Amino acid sequence: MPFDIAQLFRTNKTLAIWAAFFGLVWLTSYYGLFGLVFITYILCFLFNGPIERLAAKTRLPRVLWAVVVYLVFLAVVLTIISSVVPRIGAESTAFLKKLPDTLETLRRHLDDWAWLAPDMAAPISKVKDYLALEALVGFKAETLFTLAVNSLNQISIYVSTFLLGTLFSFLIMLDFPNLRAKTIALRESRLRDIYDVTARSVVRFAVVVGMGFRAQIMIAGLNTLLTALGMYLLDIQPIGLLSTVVFFCGLIPVLGTFISSAPIVLVAVNTAGPNHALWAIGMIIIVHTIETYVLNPRIVAAMFKISPLITLMILYVGHKLFGLWGMVLGVPVSVFILRYVILGVDLESPARAASPPCVTPDREHGGNG
Asked: Is the pTM higher than 0.70?
């Protein structure tokens, strides 16, 4: 019997469609486009709801509200860039200049602790080795300038990706009703098999990711405000730079806490010694206790609750497979797979409530929404 590719596809249609879909996702990641796609989607997810509500309440054109919302957003972004970024740049330069002295101060304190506790001398010696500048940044001290230049280049890439994603999301929001209608019309085209297999699952997946990331942004913002207040009370400088690190690390569940705490403790040690560092650690514990017992239960929906141990495992695997984006998206993706794919939990209600861009659940079977 001759081999028939068409028959093989018809027999394994669902498997082939999902394989093609995940292959497309992998290609966007491989060619560095995943960040742009993700930022575009998140901005659409965040702004579509307010635009829809404003248009419904005021009965003014949806396009007008899309323009207004994005102008306000750009005004806020430009204000932050013009006022905060120069300060952060200056603080970053000062921090890098002081970094060798900060590490040396910490190493001297470790020597004192090793003298007071001889039994701990061996592990303290190992910690001192890890605190060497060459071990931390992979460069010699005299090439610290290279590290700063590379960091600035990476930041410029992130900024350009963010601005391009903002432009794409704005264009999508301008023509969103027409794009949604054309997407729904795919059900009557030659792509109806792909549409029937993937539409509902992709929309539900997008809603889970969008809701999870939106909740994480809110938590990271509140954590940053509380941490900045704590650093102000403890006189830990530079507040702007350290608060920025706290915010972006706050987008990574659990592990981001440890990453953002390290520079705060280092600065506290260099400023006023180990006792000040203990106060800083106490402040960080208080802030994240508030996050765990106050913010998470109120901001994060019940379906996003997950064990910290499992979260760390997900972050480790996500980082190994997909790098930074694997750490950022690992938890919501895992929640989707567990709750929707494995347990079959119905995500219909949050999907409708969120009203994500592109296709809306159940509406894809007819109507123009």
From this structure: no
